[in-house]
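Extended Data, panel c. Modelled sequence:
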Amino acid sequence: MGRKPVIALLGGGQLGRMFIENALRYDVTVHVLDPDPQAPCAMLADRFVQGRFSDRDTVLAFAADADVVGIEIEHVSVEALVELKAMGKRVIPDPEVLRIIQDKGLQKQFYLDHGLPTPDAVLLEGPDGIADHAQLLPAFLKARTGGYDGKGVMPINTLADAAKAFPGPSVLEARADIALELAVIVVRSSLGTMSTYDPVEMVFDPRFNLVDHLRAPARITPEQSREAIALARRVAEAFGAAGIYAVELFLTKDGRLLVNETAPRAHNSGHHSIEACPSSQFDQLLRLYMNWPLGATELLGHAAMVNLVGEGGQGEPRVKGLDDVLHMPATYLHLYGKRETRTGRKMGHITVVARDHHQLDQAIAVTKVHAGVVPIEPQEH
């Protein structure tokens, strides 16, 4: 009997955990590297190594015996991935794709260079440059590197806001007149074949600048759905490498579709696919790693995913309201295994599959009213 293929995953958070939950059904081995010894993947991985995935030498040593190298967070050592690819390992996403996406400035320029519609923006070396581009206001200021889950983004409505802007290189992006925020996940194989999931509609929580909930299919016209899929496929084709591309889009009030950002990995906007599609985004990722045929992506019904975000301070987590939520048919709880909750932290999600938009509305309302994650005994700091 031959050796099982070894997948080296950089990052041990909830995306890695959901990937492993799917991979356990197959004959593969998953190794995980993460700086947190209590990361969600720590107890599930075949091998868990505590270490920094942003450190070149640590990554090279960790992945030395792997067949495939993947990520579940963008902030990893691209230099190490370049070397691992040169050794003949299968690296997804491609290091050069990741290099572009890690830097929001390079990502914005990439869209412009490839003729992809995107909001107007300028690249700044620091906040002093905002005053030279007052015509873009109101706008959002995005740190070029290091942002994640809503961090590294702030509104700049007037020139007076520039005084509170964070330092360092950034992108100043004109605020689009948005009707809906959409996302389309595109899976691209090494042969160039592509499969796409139906566009999802994302609703954000303004308190934390995080997705509050999403619904699939999005409440858009069939023509808009086709246009969103076509645009997302253009983005994946422009990157030109195997991988999962979660393409976030703005649908403006005058009917235009604009590319906001792309994530080269499994994404919050695809969590519903675990229950609502024949092959989930995590199953597709495994198929990409192993160079297997892509899976089916059609929706099996209407679906909603509601994020469970910590509230009420920090401490050991407790889920509230489960009895009220799980009595609904086709309702699924996912907890991420995080040892500590804190206000605004993603702790899990609930997926509901329904027969129509009306039933979905009811399920979202019940979940939002009753479900949550709170500390058992809030800690004082």
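The mean pLDDT is 95. This feature is highlighted in the accompanying rendering.
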